[in-house]
Amino acid sequence: MIKEKVSNKAKANKAKVVPLRQPICLSVHGLESQVCGIMSNVIVMLISLGWNPAHIYIWESPSGVAFVSGSFLDNTSHLLFDIIDSYNALQFPRVSQHFDGKGIEKGVDFEVTFSLLRAYRRNKSGKEPRWKPEYAESRAAALETAFSGSLWPQSRVSDAFPDVSNECLWCGEPRADSLHDIYLCPHLFESEDSSILETNDLVEEAIEKANSNPCLWFRGIATIDLTQLPEEVMGYADSFKCAYELDPPPVGEWPSGDYFTDGGGGRFSSVASLRKCTIGIAHLVDSVLVFGCRSPLPGAVQTVPRSEVAAVLVLAMHLSCNAVVSVFSDNLVFVNAFKKGYDFCRKMLNSDIYI
């Protein structure tokens, strides 16, 4: 009954969104009086983020994706990620007004933006450190400072404190702004730091593009328009498109025996927006390849763990009804989950494939 009242009110008010500085239950005008418990609070929160809670079990995202609970999809990670994305999308225009924030309103690719920071924080190459610890820590701290808009060129200091000169402390440039401090100061060209020397070729491009996209050039924040391609360009498969090696039996007639499965992300696996995964299956007898199969991973969710699970699904689709097989996978997460059974797997990411 509460849901019905809230939904009708939302339709009448078109779920007008206001800045989320207030408690979330007050974020949609005219609905706060309907909030009297956890579920109605959740409904108002979803409406405030542009969602349509059409049913207690069906929540539709702003992009039109419907999340159905109470069925096979017990893992809520994708739902939570989408809710977070909805909140961020509402915040981008506001955040873009911050210091050197122009460009953020187009959306932020967090994975690309934080990839180098994660590498510095992880600092591993195999079992050995990739960089000296003090180097990695200092570079990570510098990146975090830039990401958060905490760089203070002399011009910014002067704008905040007019009594302070805005001249560059190194070269005396009359107004030392972000472009000057990061790219143009003569002091930089005298540096022997490899990080500076290796990026000097970006100076001309920075002069041309920094003013239109300062969040990238001055803060290192990669926007979605620079990193993500439309789905129609990416060409995701809508189903498994199997290609076969050594003329295997027809689908549904593969025999018992040993099968080896794998999944991979391709050449650009480290860049989520460019990653396109493939699954592979090999049937071996006495270490000799008898036949094999490969297929692109269908759908827009392109992750290596998903391809590892999908490889076993494709194998199951090809086996004969009475086949008894041993499946070998190098993905320990999948192997351990499979051993724990149905109730555990249905709570995993990619539970739709497990089940």
Strand order of the largest sheet: 4-7-6-5-8
Q: Which overall shape is indicated by the principal axes computed on the Cα atoms?
A: globular
Helix tally equals 17
Radius of gyration: 26 Å
Helix content: 40-55%
What's the CATH C level of the largest domain?
A: Alpha Beta
Q: Ranges with pLDDT <50 over ≥5 residues? A: 1-27
Largest sheet features: 5 strands, mixed
Instruction: Tally the structural domains.
Output: 3
Summarize the structure.
The chain has 355 residues and is an alpha+beta fold. The chain has 17 helices and eight strands.
Structural write-up:
- This protein is 40% helix and 12% strand.
- The chain has a 5-stranded mixed beta sheet with strand order 4-7-6-5-8.
- Mean pLDDT is 85; it is low at 1-27.
- The longest helix has 19 residues, at 77-95.
- It starts with a helix and ends with a helix.
- The protein contains 17 helices and 8 strands.
- The chain has helices spanning 2-13, 38-48, 77-95, 110-122, 133-147, 154-160, 178-184, 186-189, 194-197, 203-209, 214-217, 224-227, 231-234, 304-318, 332-340, 342-345, 351-354; strands at 52-55, 58-60, 66-68, 243-245, 257-264, 278-285, 288-296, 325-329.
- It is of the alpha+beta class.
- A hairpin with a 2-residue loop joins strand 1 and strand 2.
